[in-house]
Write a structure and sequence with these properties.
By secondary structure, the chain is of the alpha/beta class. Helices cover 41% and strands 17% of the residues. The chain is built from 15 helices and 14 strands. A 6-stranded mixed sheet has the order 3-4-2-1-5-6, with helices on both faces. It has a 6-stranded parallel sheet with strand order 11-10-9-12-13-14, with helices on both faces. A two-stranded parallel sheet has the order 7-8. Strand 9, helix 8 (236-244) and strand 10 form a beta-alpha-beta unit. The radius of gyration is 21 Å and the shape is globular.
Length: 407
């Protein structure tokens, strides 16, 4: 089977969608399929990183598209980057041969519409792998007005591609419910979350010690938020908790990663003179285990309006390490579906946005009860291993070229 994977990010970029798409590409190639990837030639979070326009990597054909790399400091910059990617991807896809299967992720937004249009011209089936829902996300973030002309146009484009899809891969039951509310038939929706990188990301005691020594964290209780800093994951409550603990030199709040909201974290630190708030860029996969293991308590955040629109992918690596965690988000979400399966003290805590006092209470409890990685979290993570979920997704994609209901 000839397979096209279409997304803004791919290896060697290290943002989450690049890592998961790379895993899928390798699994499809290992299963005997011919895999072509179309992605951007610049790093997602660091546009100064440039990748080869055309290369063969581990048997996978990679074609990369030029974008201006304006960054994410302003909405117009992101829109221009997205528009140029769309334009250049259209030109490239029209020159490529027909593919039996096109798997479209969701960066840039609505890229599945382009994949669907090209497949309609050339043949083949399309499967959107929905990492986030747009324009729903833009509306929830306040970037688009619900019911306005732009939202109606983008929703119509989304709906057209979804109705023509052979399958849709939703990440949780809340996302599946949103798809059904848009008129997608339940039998076309396959639900599976992204997986933990459990081969590379394991609790690393030596790496933890080295990372903590390198960054001056020895003897501190480290509260870590690691991953994409975006409006979908509001950090205001956590930052206010850090401000309230400004005189406690025993705790460090470490923000690792990138995204449009990282600048707000840095500005909050400077405005309030918070020496215990630290920031680091995304860590490469080779250092990810050491970085994540260095935390005493991880924080996973989901905005109240974003249940079923975005998915807390970072939680699976945290569970695989067994490091205790604090979940912040709406009670009805996949994040809290997971938290309810863990002991409420010593392993996991749950708070609502705005509950600064609750965050401080949880931190007090964690500082006296957390003694290292917990087996309960690792046992839960076993159900989200790469070997199981990636293999299951490959089989689902292989079946996608068959009519619905084919045994």
């Amino acid at each position: 089977m000839r397979v096209l994977l279409l997304n803004q990010c791919f290896h060697p970029d290290h943002v989450a969608t690049a890592q998961h798409l790379t895993d899928l590409a390798l699994a499809l190639q290992a299963a005997g399929h011919e895999v072509t990837v179309v992605a951007a030639s610049r790093g997602y979070d660091d546009p100064s990183r440039r990748f080869p326009v055309c290369e063969e990597w581990r048997g996978i054909h990679i074609r990369r598209i030029w974008t201006p790399g304006l960054g994410k400091t302003a909405k117009w910059r992101r829109l221009v980057d997205f528009a140029v990617f769309w334009l250049n991807a259209t030109r490239l896809l029209l020159t490529l041969p027909r593919f039996d299967l096109t798997v479209c992720l969701t960066s840039p937004p609505l890229i599945s519409t382009l994949g669907t249009a090209v497949a309609a011209l050339k043949g083949g089936v399309v499967v959107p792998w929905i990492m986030d829902l747009n324009p729903d996300e833009a509306v929830a973030a306040g970037w688009l007005r619900a019911g306005g002309p732009a939202e109606r146009l983008l929703s119509a484009m989304q709906g057209w591609s979804f109705r023509r899809a052979a399958r849709l891969i939703a990440l949780d039951r809340f996302m599946a419910a949103r798809l059904q509310a848009k008129g997608v038939a339940p039998e076309r929706i396959h639900i599976d979350p992204p997986w933990a990188h459990d081969d590379e990301v394991r609790y690393d005691e030596a790496g933890r010690a080295a990372f903590r020594a390198e960054h001056g964290l020895e003897g501190k209780f480290v509260v870590m938020y690691s991953g994409n800093h975006s409006p979908c994951h509001p950090l205001d409550t956590l930052l206010e908790a850090a401000r309230r603990l400004r005189d406690d030199d025993g705790v460090i709040f470490l923000f690792v990663g990138g995204g449009s909201e990282m600048a707000k974290v840095k500005a909050f630190r400077e405005r309030h003179g918070l020496d215990q708030v630290r920031t680091l860029p995304y860590q490469p996969m080779a250092r990810l285990a050491a970085s994540l293991s260095s935390a005493d308590l991880h924080v996973v955040v989901l905005g109240d309006a974003f249940a079923g629109i975005v998915h807390p992918c970072k939680i699976y690596n945290i569970l695989a390490l067994g490091v205790p965690l604090l979940a912040m988000g709406p009670p009805e979400s996949h994040l809290n579906d997971l938290i309810r399966r863990l002991p409420a003290t010593g392993v996991a805590w749950q708070v609502r946005h705005g509950g600064v006092d609750d965050v401080l209470r949880c931190l007090r409890e964690a500082r006296v009860s957390v003694t290292g990685p917990r087996p309960e979290a690792r046992e839960l993570a076993a159900g989200y291993s790469r070997g199981m979920l990636c293999g299951r997704l490959v089989r689902e994609l292989e079946n996608a070229i068959l009519p619905i209901g084919t045994p």
